[in-house]
Amino acid sequence: MTEVYIFSGFLGSGKTSLLTHAIRQAKEEGLKPGVIMNELGQLAFDSAAVDGDVPLREILDGCICCTGSEKTEAQVQALLHEQVDIIFIETTGAAHPVEALDSIHSPLFGDALDIRGIVTVADGRRWLGRNSMSPQVRMLFLEQIRHASVILLNKSDLLTDAERSSSAAEMQAMNPEAPILETVNGKVPLDYLRKVAKGGRRAPVQQAAIGKQLPISSRLVSMDEPVEREAFEAWVKSLPDTIYRMKGYVRLEGHRYPSLFQYAYGMVQWIPESMNMPGNLVIIGENPGALEVPGNSHV
Ligand SMILES: Nc1nc2c(ncn2[C@@H]2O[C@H](COP(=O)(O)OP(=O)(O)OP(=O)(O)O)[C@@H](O)[C@H]2O)c(=O)[nH]1
């Protein structure tokens, strides 16, 4: 049977970081991993994090929970044909984990799949700031924690000892059965996940089809002009709290190529690239269409 793990967690919490780490460990253990990656935008941005030799299927531009289970079934089928030993499904940060789980509980697979459950990556700082999220979005964030088989309290490097223990205790109260592990960059031993993730649904779903009603959308912006780093970061800081995530390639003034830019819950990261990547930025949040974006010359 092929083990299946669903990686859940809010936008920018560290799912891709967990995925790259899990893939590396699976390979080291002699397992053949396969990946299904679900992204909100049309751009398969995170796919670059998956090595070329790992079978990868993408479900783009919509949540796995809303695009219909046929698409997911087809992608799982394709991975099974490639005889993978373990499948990691990275859901979008806007996906309801139980709906994602349901989409792979298909009679098509019979006993070919051993669905081990939901690993939820929770951004510790976002947990502390959860009350500033809009109600529907906060509900999704909490649902991801409530239905986890295992919770990773990630970005624990950004929390104090007191914040780490109070966050873990509060999450445990919300989901008493899931083991909680404090992590940095989603680094968790794969053996641990394989031991503790037992699959199955743990609590009634609070609100069905939450992903369909969520006010979250994504916008792809072409970044055709270089930006000044400080001014760009000041613009990022000025954005409303309801802009949850940005990622893409942005050219900084004085740089030859666009740098990889990441934004998640107040944190900005720039990684210089040595190749000329197309200047594109994905913005995810509530009403990203209303923003004027520096570096984009189009109206
Ligand atoms: N300081 C710190 N940063 C982290 C940690 N984990 C992830 N990050 C950073 O957070 C950002 C988002 O990480 P990803 O792994 O891409 O998050 P994600 O959940 O896959 O994001 P989406 O797929 O867009 O929802 C990146 O800039 C990471 O480098 C952590 O433990 N500590």
Automatic annotation (TrEMBL):
Pfam families registered for this protein in UniProt: cobW (PF02492), CobW_C (PF07683)
Recorded catalytic activity of this chain's protein: GTP + H2O = GDP + phosphate + H(+)
Source taxon at top rank: Bacteria
Entry keyword Nucleotide-binding: yes
Keyword set, alphabetical order: Chaperone, Hydrolase, Nucleotide-binding
Keyword Cell division: no
Domain CobW C-terminal residue range list: 216-291
UniProt cross-references to InterPro entries, sorted A to Z: CobW-likC_sf, CobW-like_C, CobW/HypB/UreG_nucleotide-bd, P-loop_NTPase, Zinc-reg_GTPase_activator
Family, per entry: Belongs to the SIMIBI class G3E GTPase family. ZNG1 subfamily.
PANTHER family named in the record: COBW DOMAIN-CONTAINING PROTEIN, COBW-RELATED
Name assigned to this protein: G3E family GTPase
Organism: Bhargavaea ullalensis
Lineage, broadest ranks: Bacteria, Bacillati, Bacillota, Bacilli, Bacillales
